[in-house]
Design goal:
The structure is a single chain. This protein has a two-stranded antiparallel ribbon with strand order 1-2. The chain has one domain. It contains 1 helix and 2 strands; from the N terminus they run ββα. The protein is mainly α.
Length: about 140
């Protein structure tokens, strides 16, 4: 017997309910495997193509998101700048409000002093009968 020659042992598939016995050789199983591989390949090719198309679309979406991220970063920087400017403006307004309140209080005090001075002058003029009055 030739040692290069491979003796094929049949495989036995048993379906007990139908009482069918099939004996398949290694070549038979290899042929079935090849047919199944071809069928699987033809079934999977459109799926692979759709997945590649989806991958391309997702790449475009990622690029757009990267651009959006850059724009949002710039907008965020602008908002930070505006926030600093707004805080400075608020601080200036608070200082102005304090200055105005101090001015108003000092003015009120000065007007009260002037009124007291005027009342004193009017009274002195009445005492000296330089201004007509009720005395």
């Amino acid at each position: 017997m030739n040692t290069n020659q491979i003796i094929q042992q049949p495989a036995t598939i048993s379906l007990e309910k139908e009482e069918i016995f099939v004996a398949l050789t290694h070549r038979d199983l290899q042929a079935i495997s090849n047919l199944l591989d071809q069928k699987l390949k033809t079934e999977l090719t459109p799926i692979h193509e759709r997945l590649d198309h989806m991958d391309t679309r997702l790449s475009h979406v990622e690029e757009r998101l990267d651009h959006m991220d850059a724009r949002l970063d710039r907008a965020d920087d602008n908002f930070k700048y505006l926030d600093v400017k707004l805080n400075k403006t608020i601080e200036k307004l608070e200082n102005l409000d304090l200055s105005f309140r101090t001015f108003a209080q000092n003015t009120k005090r000065d007007i009260t002093k002037l009124q007291d001075g005027t009342d004193t002058i009017v009274e002195i003029l009445r005492i000296n009968r330089l201004v007509p009055g009720n005395s």
